[in-house]
Design goal:
single chain; alpha+beta; two-stranded antiparallel sheet; two-stranded parallel sheet; 8 helices; 8 strands; about 30% helix
Length: about 280
């Protein structure tokens, strides 16, 4: 944006250029404003080239290459047992798109002749053409775009707490662990139970027929204890500890039963949640 101001010393017009250098959005706004793939896509990261994996058990995209973001000397890179990828991870963290590389990929999307080819290009790159902020001077989305900490981090922490408290634990989660051969003691066991039920004839049926016996097979699903899930008594204990926390002055938290009511953690101090709150309460 350009505008004219007057120098008070010389009484002459001066052209001044003003650029808005920082943008703050949550992840869905990133995808809409910058023409990126959504959160469920394989290329859903708004910054790097990390590629997710479609999981049939959960019916969603998961990201199993998170160890690439660890330091090179991390012991977790050598773990071949407890992660989905049963190999040593030596790959560096995924690279970013350079500004020129990204613009080339966006222009290629707009040049595709049909919708099918555009869809394939978007799956491969995570980009959907030129975005509205592209014509702005001085704009560099990798340096000037930031994610909204309250929604991004707090929603992630809420999902973790739901998982710990058992609210989101299901047969799909256990089957996913079975698919990647992890936590064998938590896999779902189905017990088949056969029951005989008679088929009742219709009341207004002219010819009465004898009820036919049918064999109905039902499945009873039992969930073994999981190391990531707390029992009801343990959740109550964690809530009691959370209610006893005394926060320093300046924190916008208040003591509450955070494990039963995760929305009490929706604040801008997401780093505090990651650093100490969960570890202290559990």
């Amino acid at each position: 944006m350009e505008c004219q101001l007057y120098d008070s010393h010389k009484d002459a017009p001066v052209t001044v250029k003003i650029a808005l250098l920082q943008y703050l959005c949550d992840i869905p706004a990133f995808a809409k404003l910058l023409h990126l793939s959504g959160q469920a896509a394989l290329r859903s990261c708004t910054f790097c080239k990390e590629v997710g994996v479609r999981n049939n058990s959960l019916n969603k995209t998961i990201h199993i290459s998170n160890r690439q973001f660890l330091s090179d000397d991390s012991a977790y890179r050598l773990d071949c047992t407890n992660f989905a990828l049963k190999t040593v991870v030596n790959d560096p963290k995924p690279a970013f798109y350079s500004k020129d590389e990204e613009m080339t990929a966006r222009k290629d999307f707009d040049l595709k002749p049909n919708k099918n080819q555009k869809t394939i290009h978007q799956k491969e790159t995570g980009l959907r053409g030129i975005h509205p902020l592209y014509p702005l001077p001085y704009f560099d989305r990798l340096k000037q775009m930031q994610t909204d900490g309250m929604h991004t981090i707090s929603d992630v922490i809420s999902n973790v707490l739901d998982f710990i408290s058992g609210k989101t634990d299901s047969a799909k989660v256990r089957n996913c662990e079975k698919q990647y051969n992890r936590f064998e003691q938590t896999w779902v066991t189905n017990k088949r139970k056969s029951t005989d039920q008679g088929k009742q004839p219709k009341k207004k049926q002219k010819k009465q027929s004898e009820p036919q016996s049918t064999n109905v097979v039902t499945e009873e699903v039992s969930f073994p204890d999981a190391p990531w899930s707390l029992s009801k008594s343990q959740v109550k204990l964690a809530d009691k500890r959370a209610q006893s926390i005394q926060y320093p002055r300046g924190f916008d938290y208040t003591p509450a039963d955070h494990f039963s009511r995760q929305w009490t953690l929706r604040t801008m101090h997401g780093k505090q949640q990651v650093s100490c709150l969960i570890k202290f309460n559990i």
